[in-house]
Amino acid sequence: MQDEHLPTWLSRLSVRGGPRFLQIADALQAAVANGSLRPGDRLPAQRQLAAQLDLDLTTITRAYDEARRRHLLEGRGARGTYVAAPKVELTSVLDLGMNTPPPPDGVDFDDLLKQGVSQVLMRADAHLLMTYHLGGGSDSDRKAGARWLEPMFGALDHREVVVCPGAQAAIAALILALTEPGDVILAEPATYPGLLAAAAQFGRRSVAVEADAHGMVPEALEQACRQHQPGLVYLNPTLQNPTAVTIGERRRKELAGVAQRCNARIVEDDPYWLLAEAPPPPIATLAPERVYYISTLSKCLTPGLRVAFVLMREPHERERFLAALRSFALMAAPLTAALATQWIFDGSAGALMEGVRKEARLRHRMARDILAGRYSGAGDGLHAWLELPGYWNSSQLARAAGSEGIAVTPAQAFANGSASVNAIRISLGSIKDRARLQAGLQRLSHLLARRPEPFGAAVV
């Protein structure tokens, strides 16, 4: 039974509310967020609070330690424990613009990283981790890649898997290896900016192919293939970036059929397949001789690994691909590749990905609740595509959001050609703290609900 003289910021603890120390830490965080507790406020001594709550001292110590980990409290020796002044991070831009995995609840990433690196160093020659690797990954790394791709393809020959320093490097190397300057690359009207940047940098021309609510239109692709004789067709078919559309199995078969009839080659960039709810089979399973499949760890685990796997069936094409890759990105860093391999084989990657998946879905539910009718996310993945009311345009909205400390990405950033829909992409993983994400989404919702202010020159 709780003491009736509890601090005002601490409501009655719930038997079904989870661990008591987390309930206390959450109450502290909420009180700091709503202003009930302010920087410099003194907290009850741990023994006093333990007695008031009829809990053991260890529980209160764990609660205060957790609050310190969240940068909410600071100790001042014999003077006691006080609410900490906010760090700069708490007042920084709320980043809804960068597509990164959210930190999974209940996964100690620091411990995971330390244990993984420790295991790598125990089992590998340190010299080999610090020297050049020229073959698209070690044998172990390729086997790990084959294991990573098993949910999509079943058992694979690991020799068909190439290890790359990220999906962007893989896309660039495929363009260099398989196309010539001046060639056309077909993609959807709103597509991944990295594809557009690489195509432009290498002197290739990106051309938009009509897409509808279900993805690229097969009839439009066939017409574009016959008109342009493209070097490549680029598709991001699962939780597409930026629209979050997943192409259904029937349409995937139709697109694969177009590629076969028109002798077109498809780059299937599929970073979100493992995060999606019951995704269709990859296009690469339907036309394996015509599709180059990319799966990166950056969206399911962490961008810091800089590891992606490319499935390429033909040996001579793998050699051309590796030669192109070596011209600008010699290899994936052996240490991070070895860490990825360790995590894949010991199950850590699967556990981390499951945590990311659960956290992402929770955040999508939050976004759906706050943004109501404006939300158009798929309920999984890392982002949602918001079509804007007519009184806003996407660049104007992005500027207005930036002035209020919120970063979003306007549709123009994804435009393949001159046409652009009036929308923004919001990413739900970059903001580490869930309460700050909620605050950012609420501020964005309020901004969307009001009309833009008329422009006026500053007077000084």
TrEMBL record:
SUPFAM superfamilies: PLP-dependent transferases (SSF53383), Winged helix' DNA-binding domain (SSF46785)
Signal peptide from the UniProt entry: none
Pfam families assigned: Aminotran_1_2, GntR
CDD domains reported for this sequence: AAT_like, WHTH_GntR
UniProt KW keywords: Aminotransferase, DNA-binding, Plasmid, Pyridoxal phosphate, Transcription, Transcription regulation, Transferase
InterPro entries assigned: Aminotransferase_I/II_large (IPR004839), HTH_trans_reg/aminotransferase (IPR051446), PyrdxlP-dep_Trfase (IPR015424), PyrdxlP-dep_Trfase_major (IPR015421), PyrdxlP-dep_Trfase_small (IPR015422), Tscrpt_reg_HTH_GntR (IPR000524), WH-like_DNA-bd_sf (IPR036388), WH_DNA-bd_sf (IPR036390)
Top-rank lineage group of the source organism: Bacteria
Example of a GO MF term: transaminase activity
SMART domains xrefs: HTH_GNTR
Residues annotated as domain HTH gntR-type: 18-86
Family of the protein in this entry: In the C-terminal section; belongs to the class-I pyridoxal-phosphate-dependent aminotransferase family.
Protein name according to UniProt: PLP-dependent aminotransferase family protein
Organism: Comamonas endophytica
Lineage: Bacteria, Pseudomonadati, Pseudomonadota, Betaproteobacteria, Burkholderiales
